[in-house]
Amino acid sequence: MKITKAVVTAGGLGTRMLPATKTVPKEMLPLADKPVIQYVIEEAVASGISDILVVTNRAKSAVDDYFDYTPELEEKLASAGKIEELEAVRRTADIANVFYVRQKETLGLGHAVWRARRFVGNEPFAVLLGDDVTMADVPVTRQLIDAAEQYGASAVGTQRVPADAISKYSSLKVEPLGGRVFRVEDMNEKPRPEEMFSEYAILGRYVLSHEIFDILEGTSPGYGGEIQLTDGLRTLCRRSPMVAVDFEGRRYDTGSLRGFLEATVDFSLKHADIGEWMREFIKKRAGEL
Ligand code: UTP
Questions:
Q1: What is the pTM of this model?
Q2: What is the CB < 6 Å shell around ligand 1?
Q3: CA angle, 231 as apex, 250 and 98 as ends, to 5°?
Q4: pLDDT digit string, tens, across residues 46-66
């Protein structure tokens, strides 16, 4: 079945980026000239997704405003002949069919995904974390969809992380299937070093069977008192096939200061107008260090 729906989770509080995120959602912080969430939605669209549900909360109305029309601004830009700016502003509003649902309580990523059950219905769907941005030749969500279709399975995005960093992620128990794809046998959330299955961590992208909703419905709060998506995925991988895709490309956790700054540098370097300037600026600064 063709995968056309995606859920972008943006219901978290963003405490790692305070005070910046006290009034501005972390998904609205800019990387070069676009907010984080625009990169995420562009990845979904480039992967063949047409309908996107963003899970927000009461502090994130700037997100839905961003993907709306802005008649007063657009009229001003049109009458001033600022066509490039006008097109950039319009493009964001016409990017895809974007829907919103609020997570009324911050009960965890598993709960945020569960809020999408009516939007998704009985189809497989993609999940993209709204603060995880990727840079890849083939969009990472597309890489997952391709593997999910090939193996008739759910898929999680993975890359190896250093063993001493795995406690920040979910660790996967995997068996090679071919190329960059593995069969998922088990997983655990934020394991201690002695509990980890492997250095393959789940990183921010998923293609899931709708079965996950029934599973999440019955999932009790886990690590940190939140309903963990990983706990639901653990049950899902025992019930139906799941693969892990060691995706090609870079991934940035822009919800952390380091990830945000790395992404700022890398996306600025790739930017058509300022990339060359940024390269020279970095060289100049590096020479001074
Ligand atoms: P994070 O682990 O980044 O948590 O969530 P957070 O609350 O957003 O940020 P910090 O840790 O306080 O800085 C991972 C993903 O899950 C979403 C977040 O928006 C992010 O996309 N999430 C998390 C929700 O949508 N709802 C939640 O209740 C928790």
A1: 0.95
A2: 9-16, 55, 103, 106-109, 111-112, 129-131, 255
A3: 55
A4: 999 999 999 999 999 999 999
